[in-house]
Q: What sequence folds into this?
């Protein structure tokens, strides 16, 4: 017997008799003889739970966790103890997409709360139930823009994180959309170039705040220029910062998208995270993914249900807005619990602390003389500096001291070879910040 | 408990908070310096204490039905048991605390799991290499179709713009193909749900890029002509895509690569036991046969001697994810594979199939069996045998909720009008199946004696049937909408 299979020989004998077979092979008679599996799989032998724990402990020891001082799309924010306790509840963890709403009101209620909170943070009217991550949310936003304008070109600001740009480019290429980059001017989207690039082929324009360099761009006049051209403005934001920064709606964006990882989701080597996508009410039928709405049951009791499903793949098939089926529902619960705990005051404090600590590190690093400002522009928790210290030297020194940070942007663009990224959250103590700056300041 | 029906916003009292954060230590730098870059008003998030939050979500959870609550025979979703040890391991700080951009030397353990799991999936599938980057089944489909397109474009075959999809396919298949810029050629299935070979031959031409197929198909039947199908499509210059949603059925029996498939995805949240989380996060690794590896998405994880490293392949389709996909999900799937090993993974399909056929045979007098012959991992009925009562499949499904079972998948596959699709999975015992069968028979009897009970079911659940038309018409999609509507 094996712990996940409850079939005893006695059970099997009774079941075979009922089915009317003598041996199990009869059930697979339709599998052509030539391709029937006759040998054992060439994979490792089964491990007991004791052995599995030991094996994974050994594998875990091959990893080195560090005090994190970089961001680039994944931020080491504090994740309250309440979150793992709630999301581990089997009723949330092991259920499927809420196809039977009468026994899935728990899931549907938090999706409704999540959608509400996303609109509060972005200033938009509607949000879907979740996307895979920030980059795929941006790609889906481009397809919305295509559908809204019937045009075939996307402009991406070169200040958008390259990870987002790469996913957008991949999706766009196969869909048959053209992609052009709007050049950078002093760390921000060049408004002059944008104006020149806007023509009647442009479906959507993607900008990011805070941008790839950590700069909080103002986007004054951008929405008017984009809308004047009949195009759609897509703003990609780390949603956590929108608790204090001007919202995409205030910036005049038509679609807001990005990652919610900073809302209580552990770094987890890049996933699972959570993408969000929000828009104005008039575009709701062009949204991808699940949407939850409020209704009533037959007794007049308030109830929640998946709605506007006529947009989706299981109804519309090839004419659907998107192919999304499974999304990141449980991660929306992470975000919802996090935002409930934080409230408006907690979200403000997180951003204030991150701002203060990031600026303190910035000052300390510049004071070492080994790091120099690249742009003189406002930032929140993330920034870049110029350095002539070799990246391998930095990596080794930081690793030896239990740190991770000062990541070179050369991996994305060789012209930023000597530019390195830093991010500081409310989790970092003054002592960590000072020690980190001292390690880097001691290098040459 | 089940009558609890508050939203977190309705618990809010100004001034309350659920967190304590460190005090500020800087006087020099203040966020207010951002001036006009800041929003004018704070977001109207709830203000609640920590206990308010814990109690609220605990209460909400009790309105949900999970695999650990009871039998969850949702067809096509493979709702098997989600092992606890996998959750424990995924929560280890040495995994959960890793930043995705840490240098490879610091994340050798995570990269080892990636590399070893993709090798296991390749062996189980009879393919050459997998990428674990796609986030879900449909996302794996999309990546797989991109690979097919990239391969064809690489060979200069730009004319191949069409993908064949049988009418019985999962809705994601045509939706993914359309998203990838393909034209969809739908072919009708035979009355038994098989690929109609004549229909297939009629559409095969030099504009065909490939065909998407799940086998066993969505009717739970293994298409015995599979070798001829793959041969025909290959003969016409197309590639075969395997939708791995139903892979659970054939574990231990045959491998998609041996059947002639070139590209496939696997739903780790189905066959490999990771929890569905109320609709994700899943994981949809995409795999390819030899010769197509270079098209797999970036980043790619490679091994050189004893060391693992990350690289971006020049021929890759590009990136479909910010980082390495849903790491903690594929980590759980890895634990599942190590726990079952070669000794037990081979029994998964056999036990799942025995369970499905046991249910099929037991219910055939009460529910219409539109297809004769053995089912694989799931069986499909077309409503009640006795249709005179007016009781529908929806009524049957809702009544099951009163008896403490999750409903099967209903009204899919679309080939029948009253579809009931039951997938018991291999982790369920004969006793559970017997209980379920007894209730299904009881419900069939009730349909004759007290049809109104079924039409008004469920009655014991937190809410009864919901007015879906109201939801679609009113579009109350946020708490703000709700306040505006109720104030009207």
A:
């Amino acid at each position: 017997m094996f712990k996940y299979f409850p079939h005893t020989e006695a059970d099997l004998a009774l079941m075979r008799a009922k089915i009317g077979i003598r041996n199990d092979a009869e059930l697979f008679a339709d599998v052509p003889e030539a391709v029937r599996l006759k040998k054992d799989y060439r994979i490792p032998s089964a491990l007991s739970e004791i052995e599995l724990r030991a094996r994974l402990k050994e594998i875990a020891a091959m990893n080195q966790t560090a005090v994190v001082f970089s961001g680039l799309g994944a931020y080491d924010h504090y994740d309250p103890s309440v979150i793992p306790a709630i999301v581990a509840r089997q009723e949330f963890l092991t259920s499927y997409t809420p196809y039977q709403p009468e026994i899935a009101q728990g899931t549907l209620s938090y999706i409704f709360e999540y959608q509400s909170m996303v609109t509060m943070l972005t200033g938009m009217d509607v949000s879907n139930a979740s996307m895979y991550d920030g980059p795929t949310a941006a790609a889906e936003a481009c397809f919305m823009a295509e559908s809204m304008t019937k045009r075939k070109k996307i402009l991406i600001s070169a200040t958008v994180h390259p990870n987002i740009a790469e996913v957008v480019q991949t999706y766009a290429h196969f869909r048959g959309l053209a992609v052009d980059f709007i050049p950078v001017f002093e760390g921000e989207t060049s408004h002059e170039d944008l104006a020149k690039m806007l023509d009647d082929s442009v479906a959507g324009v993607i900008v990011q705040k805070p941008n790839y360099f950590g700069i909080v761009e103002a986007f004054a006049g951008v929405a008017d220029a984009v809308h004047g051209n009949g195009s759609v403005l897509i703003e990609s934001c780390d949603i956590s910062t929108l608790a204090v920064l001007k919202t995409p709606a205030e910036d005049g964006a038509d679609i807001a998208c990005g990652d919610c990882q900073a809302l209580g989701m552990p770094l987890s080597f890049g996933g699972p995270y959570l993408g969000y996508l929000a828009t104005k009410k008039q575009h709701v039928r062009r949204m991808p993914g699940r949407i939850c709405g409020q209704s009533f049951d037959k007794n007049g009791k308030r109830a929640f249900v998946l709605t506007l499903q006529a947009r989706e793949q299981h109804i519309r098939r090839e004419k659907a807005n998107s192919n999304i089926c499974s999304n990141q529902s449980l991660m929306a619960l992470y975000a919802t619990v996090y935002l409930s705990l934080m409230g408006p005051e907690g979200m403000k404090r997180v951003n204030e602390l991150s701002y203060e600590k990031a600026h303190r590190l910035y000052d300390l690093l510049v004071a070492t003389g080994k790091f120099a400002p690249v742009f003189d522009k406002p930032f929140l928790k993330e920034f870049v500096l110029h350095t002539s210290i070799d990246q391998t030297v930095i990596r080794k020194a930081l690793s030896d001291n239990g740190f991770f940070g000062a990541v070179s942007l050369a991996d994305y663009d060789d012209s930023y070879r000597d530019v390195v990224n830093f991010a500081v959250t409310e989790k970092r103590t003054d002592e960590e910040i000072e020690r980190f700056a001292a390690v880097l300041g001691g290098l040459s | 408990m089940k009558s609890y029906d508050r939203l977190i916003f309705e618990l809010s009292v100004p001034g309350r908070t659920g967190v304590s954060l460190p005090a500020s230590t800087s006087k020099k730098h203040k966020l207010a310096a951002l001036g006009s870059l800041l929003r004018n008003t704070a977001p109207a998030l709830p203000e609640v204490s920590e206990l308010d939050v814990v109690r609220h979500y605990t209460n909400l959870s009790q309105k949900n039905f999970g695999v650990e609550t009871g039998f969850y025979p949702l067809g096509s979703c493979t709702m098997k048991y989600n092992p606890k040890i996998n959750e424990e391991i995924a929560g280890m700080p040495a995994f959960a605390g890793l930043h995705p951009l840490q240098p490879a030397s610091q994340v050798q353990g995570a990269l080892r799991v990636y590399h070893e799991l993709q090798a296991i999936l390749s062996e189980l599938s009879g393919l050459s290499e997998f990428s674990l980057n796609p986030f879900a089944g449909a996302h794996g489909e999309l990546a797989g179709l991109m690979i097919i397109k990239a391969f064809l474009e690489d060979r200069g075959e730009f004319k191949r713009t069409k993908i064949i999809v049988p009418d019985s396919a999962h809705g994601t298949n045509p939706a993914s193909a359309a998203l990838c810029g393909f034209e969809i050629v739908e072919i009708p299935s035979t009355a038994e749900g098989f690929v109609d070979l004549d229909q297939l031959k009629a559409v095969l031409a030099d504009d065909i890029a490939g065909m998407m197929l799940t086998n066993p198909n969505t009717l739970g039947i293994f298409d015995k002509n599979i070798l001829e199908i793959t041969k025909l499509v290959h003969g016409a210059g197309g590639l075969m895509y395997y939708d791995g949603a139903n892979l659970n059925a054939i574990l231990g029996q045959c491998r998609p690569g041996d059947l002639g498939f070139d590209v496939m995805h696997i739903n780790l949240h189905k066959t490999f036991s990771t929890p569905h989380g109320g609709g994700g996060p899943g994981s949809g690794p995409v795999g390819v046969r030899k010769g197509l590896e270079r098209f797999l998405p970036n980043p790619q994880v490679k091994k050189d001697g004893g060391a693992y490293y990350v690289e971006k392949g020049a021929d890759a389709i590009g990136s479909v994810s910010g980082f390495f996909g849903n790491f903690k999900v594929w980590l759980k799937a890895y634990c599942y594979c190590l726990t079952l090993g070669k000794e037990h993974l081979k029994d998964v399909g056999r036990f799942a199939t025995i369970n499905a056929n046991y249910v099929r045979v037991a219910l055939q007098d009460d529910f219409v069996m539109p297809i004769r012959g053995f089912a694989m991992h799931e069986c499909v009925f077309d409503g009640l045998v006795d249709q005179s009562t007016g009781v529908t499949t929806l009524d049957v499904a809702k009544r099951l909720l009163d008896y403490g079972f999750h409903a099967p998948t209903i009204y899919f596959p679309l080939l029948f009008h009253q579809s009931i699709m039951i997938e018991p999975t291999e982790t369920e015992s004969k006793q559970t199946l017997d209980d379920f069968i007894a209730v299904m028979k009881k419900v069939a009897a009730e349909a004759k004696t007290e049809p109104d009970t079924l039409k008004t079911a469920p009655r014991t659940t937190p809410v009864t049937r919901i007015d879906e038309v109201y939801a679609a018409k009113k579009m109350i999609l946020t708490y703000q909408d709700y306040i505006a509507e109720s104030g009207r």
